Amino acid sequence: MKQTLFIISIFFTLNLFGQKSDIENLINQVANYEIPENFEYYFLVPKSLEQEKIDDSLQNYQIRELKMVDKDFPENFIYAQPQNETVNWKNYNLNEAKLVSDDYNYNHILSPPQTKKIKFVKYNIDQKKYDSLIKNKEPYTLILKKKWLWSENRIWSNKKLYSNFVDSWEMDDKNNPEETVYFHFSKPIFSENKKYAILSVFKKRRCNGNGFTGLYRNDNGIWKKIIEFNQVESKTVSTHINCEEIKMVDYE
To answer: What pTM did the predictor assign?
Structure first.
């Protein structure tokens, strides 16, 4: 009896390990397609998206097209009911991914913050030292030059300081595009033969977002997206100011 339980335990462990490896392989390949080339890394929300029901989204003609591409396409895979299960990506080895941390987001962890920390430096700081601070700063941090007489708490009333602040914010976004978008992935659903997978992807920016659900096929170890559906978009709206103009600060 003990030997039987031991064998079952080994089988269960190997199965979990294999599934984890399959998920990592798929996510890493999809990320290579979805992450812009100029990104050195990407921010990933730790909790996965919940996978939606699929058969309500694909039309009959799309299923027919899939069967034309692959006569052995497992149609019942489309009608598989997704489990209401999420995973924490910190338990997976995902290339170039940095998990979103509460340290960098003061409101929630679903989208990039509209708040940045400010670190003031002397207005006449040595340029090399200033460049070094910019290069080695923490995410969502601005290095702002300030004259001695300028009040740190009156950015909005000092035209010159405010102008420098806006320029620094925009330059920071340009130089660090990775900080402008958070990526969300669902836990993939695999067909029984592991040749097909369904995965939802969402890209959330400060003021808008877009995403889709993709059906992927494994061709000799290479995952290829063969159809995209459930396209969604989001937009943040404010009654008093354009979302893009919202720039809040947290003094270091």
So the answer is: 0.83
